[in-house]
Design brief:
The complex is a heterodimer of chains A (325) and B (510). Chain A is of the alpha/beta class. Chain A contains twelve helices and 14 strands. Chain A is elongated, with a radius of gyration of 23 Å. Classes of the chains: A alpha/beta (325), B alpha/beta (510). At the A-B interface, helix 8, helix 9, helix 10, strand 13 and strand 14 of A face helix 3 and helix 11 of B.
Amino acid sequence: MGTVAPDHILKELVDLWVTTGKEAEGGQGVLRACSLTLVAMAEESDDPMALGETLAALMPEHPARTISIRLSGAAARTLTERVYAQCWMPFGQRRQICCEQVEITASDAALEDLPSVVLPLEVPDLPVVLWCRSVRLAAMPEFDALAQLAQKVVVDTAPIADSRAALELVASLAARGIWAADLSWTRTTRWRETLAGIFENHSYLDGLARTTKVRVASKREQPTVRSWYLAAWVMDALAKVGARPRLEMTRSEHTGVTLEGEDWSVALERWGARLVTTINGLAQCTSLPAPSDYDLMREELGILRRDPIFENTLSSALKLVHAED
Amino acid sequence: MLVAMPIENPFQDPLRFERRVPECTVVIFGANGDLTKRKLIPALYRLAYDRRLAAGFAVIGTSRTALSDDQFRDKMLEAVKQFSEDTEFDEDVWKAFAAGLYYVAGDIDDAAFYEKLAAKLKQVDGERATGGNALFYLSTQPSQYGRAAQGIGGAGMNQGSGWRRLVVEKPFGRNLETARALSGELHQVFQESEVYRIDHYLGKETVQNILAFRFGNGIFEPLWSRNHVDHVQITAAESIGVEGRGAYYQEAGALADMIQNHLIQVMATIAMEPSASFRADSVRDERSKLLRSIKPMTPDEIRRDTAPGQYGPASIGGQPVPGFREEPGVDKESGTDTYAAVTFFCETWRWAGVPFYLRTGKRLPKRVTEIAIQFKPAPLAMFDGDAPATAPNLLIVRIQPEEGISLKFLSKQPGAGMRLRPVSMDFNYGSSFGERSPSAYETLLLDAIVGDATLYTRQDMVEASWRVVEPIENVWRETKHDFPNYPAGSWGPAAADRMLARRGHTWRKP
């Protein structure tokens, strides 16, 4: 049975800095950068190269001690680890910046051993974020103990076809007092921001209370979690101004959201990597590439506190889904 | 049934969204000029690319050159392609942006031009739903600012259904008297709160970061006073010469071009008292108070505590470099300062007796802008004499090219004995925050559209800076200088070194 000793990993981390400093060109040493502990959990089948690239891309903006845990799924109770540094040379500078990376491989059976390994590896006085890339893991009972170590747990419900089950998974995390984040919600940010920007114009804002119809379109047969979030958020916002519009969840060639009043309409539609905003027939096009995991996590790592708008929207989205059923 | 009218936009999510940006029309005077092509339109295009502008956004360019809307769009397309340094060109984003570009030709002194402009503004408001908001940007000769403002007011464009604001570029006058006269002309049409005097230095991320560094952290404040700070050096060095701007530069000089505005504002940001809030007027009040506390110098003090310079010819890396007087468009006998070093003192309890050394120059060894705060030495030298007296504790705020903050302190050298050596603890803005920093013009244009004047200069600040700079200019003008007094590629005239040596200090070599 393979095991790992946190003390050994910590010693390896110390040695790593000595070695990395000696190896640095020009005798300049390296700079260690760290603003949080990021625990990334992934299935063995998850592309390690892609995950590694995402984590590396996140480091310059959110330098972290990264504990990357890969679940092998094997039956035997095994844990293995390796420690290395992720370094980069900022443009035009003379010294490398480095972040610590700890990679742990664990079988499903060893999942319950992980909290005792992760806890001593957390960087003192800095926040801990757990990014769980596997919905299977998030649903496992052992996951709870790991989640409790973190200030914030990030999941991605996009792969879950059943929107109700997906929303209930996130709600169950929140119900256990965990600051939960869902990348399906993060994917709505640019849409929501554009919509909010439109209603900065008071002539449109004044008409908002008379919204009669809201339409949220997705490309799939069944509305996605993202569309439910968007719909719930729009309906919540409209309720604040006294509007009670009819909500239509539709299937369309282009994902989008439309708000209609008696004499006005606002539509946002994604056309490839563009977002087309049409206000009373006047169209405007801006760039809206599909966000990568890096974009989404970059946003989430920037929010290390409760997100009341998300929490309310999650609750409203569940109500909408239940009402649909 | 009563329907509640919305007061606030219910869609806002301050935790995740960028700032709220209202729709508006930006009217650029001098739209055929270099600033519009190099800075303004590329910055606005970048904001559009980043979805930072409202859907109802438009630009009306104006200048004397006769152009149609389409010809103006074509010219701006060229500008965006040529001058957007780190922005991918996106055909669709451009098309949508260009649809909001309009043009009106006319002479700034012609009343009929303003009538045409007012009609266009109304038309654009109708077509683009700009909410009646308009930002007038004067990118013209400074001598035309007053007349342009009067023309705007004469055609009634200073008022409308939305807000109206006026952005003016430096110089804000050539001395205290002309600064006041200009302000008087602007105030006949716009209130002070509607006038945005742009200083692009204050739009730089690191300059803004000074505020975050000082007032977002508790550990530096106790050190930030005459009790611990020995002196402060603010350097803005350029390795290039006047680059074809000889005729303009000859009229301005380094003191008026850099110190009177940029560097003195940076100094105010470093030395100001904490403001009660981060609201624009609160921050500007403190900056203004600091500027007013700078002690104006007597002629004798000016001769002792300032140093003008002008570069002469030299060979840099085997390449011959002309002196300032050999530059195209420059008078062979020119007495213009291409280098200026000044010692300022603030008459406040916090800073009494602490010299603030400001220097700027062209054709210095490298392009660098930084602030170095040198702390007083430890009160007792308990280690051997090895601790170099030349290695004081320094806090260095680098503005360009490598934005960041470094703290230099002494550390024990590994091994037997107690030998100390200076080490540096660095924070690199670019590496700690990998995100692209917006250009100063993106920041400042967006601020003006949003109505945030924090980084803009107020009239009382302009007057306060002229009050201390004008006496220096007057003495320099009356003095026969032995120019050129520093070779291109060096760190400036010997007089600047003597200026510091008088107080036992030396310039850092950044």
